[in-house]
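As described in the Methods, two query proteins were run sequentially through the folding procedure within a single session, without resetting any intermediate state between them. The first query and its resulting structure tokens are shown here.
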Amino acid sequence: MNDENQTPPQSVLGRLGIAMGMIVIFAMASIMVSTVFTEMSTGKARAINVAGSLRMQSYLLAGELNQPGLTDDARRRLIAGSVREYEARLDDPTLLAGVQTELAPHIAEAYRGIQQRWETHFKPMALAAVTDPVKRAQFTATIGNFVAQINQLVKLLEQELEDKIQWLRLVQGVSLFVIVIVVLLTMYLMHTQIIVPLNDLLACARAVRKGDFQVRARHTQPDELGQLGAAFNTMVQDLSQMYANLEVRVAEKTEELARSNRSLELLYGTIRTLSERRVTHGALMQVLREVERVLDVSAGAICAYDPELRQGLPLATDLVEEGGRLSICPGNCEQCIGDGSLIIRAAEAADGTRSISVPLTDGGRSYGVMPLKLPPGRELAPWQLQLLEAVGRHIGAALAMAQRNEERHRLALFEERSVIARELHDSLAQSLTYLKIQVTRLQALLAKHAPAAQTGDVVGELKSGLNNAYRQLRELLTTFRLRIDGRGLNAALEETVHEFARHGSFAIDLDNRLLGVELASNEEIHVLQVIREALANVLHHAHAGRAEVSLERLENNRVRVRVDDDGVGIAEAQSPLHHFGLNIMRDRAHSLNGELTVRRRESGGTRVELEFDPATPFGSPAAMAGGGAA
């Protein structure tokens, strides 16, 4: 067992336990003695009463002997009854129990003397005195002496009972005195060993709470509270030492927080600058100046690197160029790039200036380097090197994003040019080819001096072809100018519906169940163009009174677009002569890897239906939230 779990040699609890034990012991002793004396005194009072009645019975016997007017037989019967009553009282068990005591043998001797004198003297004399006047006078003369002997017995019994009561009082008084003394000692012990040390500890605790660490507990004895006081003093001493070093530690923590704040400020500024605007010279210069300010470097640059050309291009710099290159440039860009890790080069200039090359990487690919000029004697802490690497990764990510955006823009431009070329070829180019053929026919007819009716037919076809070509040109211009702004596809659909409803003589209902579903930008353009082309066909050919445009997501995450009308209906799924709208819609459906169907409705009119699998299958939170919207 450990020493900490052992009872102290001067235990306050042990002393209190001993005192309480003594109180209990003396109380129990007093109770036991009282019980014993009570048991011993049981029946003494009755024995005294019975013994006292013997005196009265003696005088009664003398009075009956001297009673006048009685015959001898009557007096004999009366005396015989009184004698029996006297003997019954003399042999009473209570009296016998009262006189038979080992602590007072003289009482038993006095009783036996009375009993013997009664049997040998007074009883025979009383019986003889019934008929003998002389014996009667003699009995009357000696009865006083016999009563005196009985009085002595009664006095002895009373004295014995009084002695026992006195002893009982003495024992109870002593026990009470001892208990009072022990209680007073216990109260004194509690005051000196518990209350005073506790008050001292409380006063010391209040002082420590107010910042006074010089206070000490006075009670440090080897008892429980003394050990507590010693532990309290040790704790206060430790607290005093801790507070002595607190200012230094607070200063260190403040410096760490300031350093972390500067790091976070630099990282936040870098991310905000590179995300809120395009990666331009101004944005990179702002980031570079923040790096120089936070890390206290004199100058620096941000260079992009082309691994194919093995040449770097300064995107932002405030370094003075010497001989057409940066002042800290080693002359070989690959020396700055290295293996993609941070490089600190030794001093090369006469003034002891050094440089550090921070790689600009993203996804394990290097996009450039950020060389920084270190003043003489300037050393960077490990946290500053880690901060530079983090900033380099953010700049590299921004350069990579700019490069990817440029590639996407280039691809989008190529795709848009391809779409323009295809639509020009399928629409306006076909119309112009037809017009060229008609011009050739007109030339041939004019050369043959054909009749006016034939030339008139050709001129009419030329006029119709020119009108058709002009209409197609306007539709193409409208298509090429079409844009979806920041309000999204739904706003563009509403504007399209309002436009065709305003130009036509039919009502259009829009049921867009794709609210909250995110489509790619090219998918939104193709969907909008298919709807516009279908509504254009309704406007020019259907003679409809109502049309309905609906967009919804199917259970297999496919997107379905429908345009229904109640017009005359299409005869077959082919474009009329010189009209290429259906072919263009099919080309757009093919671009979406979808299917386009055009058929007559059973209730009348035409249904144009487009189904395709979106490039993003509604995996984003926004899509999941809005995918089931009606």
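Immediately afterward, the second query was submitted; its sequence and tokens are:
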Amino acid sequence: MRISPAFYLALLLALLAIPACTSMQETTGERELGASATARIPEAEAVLEGLEPSVTVVGEPGWSLEERMAHYNVRAVSIAVIEDYEIVWAEAFGLANAEENIPATTETLFQAGSISKPVAAAAVLAAAQEGKLDLDAPINSILTSWTLPENEFTAESDVTPRHLLSHTAGATVHGFAGYAIDADVPTTVQVLQGRPPANSPPVLVDFVPGSRHRYSGGGSTVMQLAMSDLVGLPYPELMVKQVLGPIGMTNSTYEQPLPQGKLLQAAVGYKTNGSPVWGKRHTYPEMAAAGLWTTATDLARFLIDMQRALRGDEGTLLRQETVEEMITPVLGSSGLGFFQVDWGGGPYFSHGGADEGFQAFFVASPEGGRGLVMMANSDNFNGLALEIRHAVTRAFDWPGVPTEPILASEVTAEELDALAGRYLVWEDRLIEMTRQGDRLMSRGLLSDDYTWWIPTAEGTFITQNNGAEFQFERDEAGAVTGYFRVDEQERRVRPRLPGDFESYVSLLDAERTDDAIARLRADGIDEVALNQLGYMLLDDRPEQAIAIFQLVVELHPGSANASDSLGEAYLSIGDTVAAVESFRLVAEKLKADSSIPEEQKPSYETRARTMLGRHGRG
């Protein structure tokens, strides 16, 4: 099992810094647009042929969406653009189901992941507007079917809906892994209690509510149950009545799992390597946190309703002052459902989301009625989403957002060759710089991550993937010894490594797996770091990942987590016999394994039982 959290908001954080697509023809007239699609406008054409990295260079063309979908192995993308409080462009590309060759349309349902939270927050705020709920009341005064455990932290300050919506409640459990098609699905109360068949630990409070910010899907699930208790309706029905229906989000639902009729509209989720999620998609009983099925156009309708409320229009779901409260940060960048991001043109409100096999992102302006929604059925959408965002902001001329292309200075081949070599970025992260024609490129060892280094007139280089500026350091003889980031307050030099330097990273990168394992064994790297290394290798280098996990089992024979991870690695190459044996050992080791907290053991037990049952040895 991955020790680091599997659920994330990488797409949102990125802001702060497939085979050919069957539905991507040259003109709108050559493809059948869904009912909610719009005609292809000139700005859209510019986006589709003008995807670009964070930094653009004068004279360099962009990429087409088709090229970048193939590059990132993303099966389907759905896009909706808002201009002047209207959807001016909505279109879907690629395959909702690659195995059955089913194209995506604007009515294809995608899992929204954490974007479920701001839509769910709107229901809470609507209830508060109507006087049915006090945002500052103790949550336990609203809950009737379960009680949030009280302790020394809640004794100092009650947990309130305001805390839960702003991620300041001190609630545990960052996010949720979901449940495969053959897994038992827990009730909401079982999820909150961390009781089987839940695969996540119990939701507790472990710091004083209101004292700091920490993202918590567990807190959103507490709010989900409180709303159902308050209104007296199942959560999906409540959300249709409170938000989805009034706004006109007719292709959206919180039903988990999806009913049979809606499965025909639903995309299949795909992993980073392009393989489908087991059973096509996961079920998320944590509906407010991760359970929304929707379309890019429905999410755009939601954003427009929020924007119109901010403008002071009548007939919106929420009043102006309510939405202003939603987008205003409480602590950090988190408001009551939305995150605030600042670009050159001013603040925007935003959220990202990721479920197994799906990623999504939206951003909207509080003034002027601009916005962008992107959804994909892939775990590898982050980079592509960022490139689409750059292209949209430039094509639609969003104020202050697009950066001007930079003019690359001329550097001789000899000068670039002098910079080539390997550099130590962190203890276990190395990059290799090489000259490619008249350009300098860096590649991260053990990854496909690469970026071009653009030379400037000041003698520095700007990395094209994120716009960071670096300068090379030289010794008295003029030889390059390392490089550093120009804007760092304390200079941290990334040293250039000697040509004969070897580490487990460089050994693995060179496919010298046995030598790398020997080095790792000698270096005494701890279990957590080895486990993370194994998962980093699993998608692209499964055989090496298996070797790493085997080493973890060897070094930590009593670890249930080590056997769990090895079982997952065996499954990735189709060795179900070895996988079954590993998951059987998980069950044997679990009781005596003191490294796993007691509250997390049920999730390991559930996973092992599911895997054994799935592969015929239950």
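Residues 296-311 form the longest helix (16 residues). We note this only descriptively and draw no conclusion about the first query from it.
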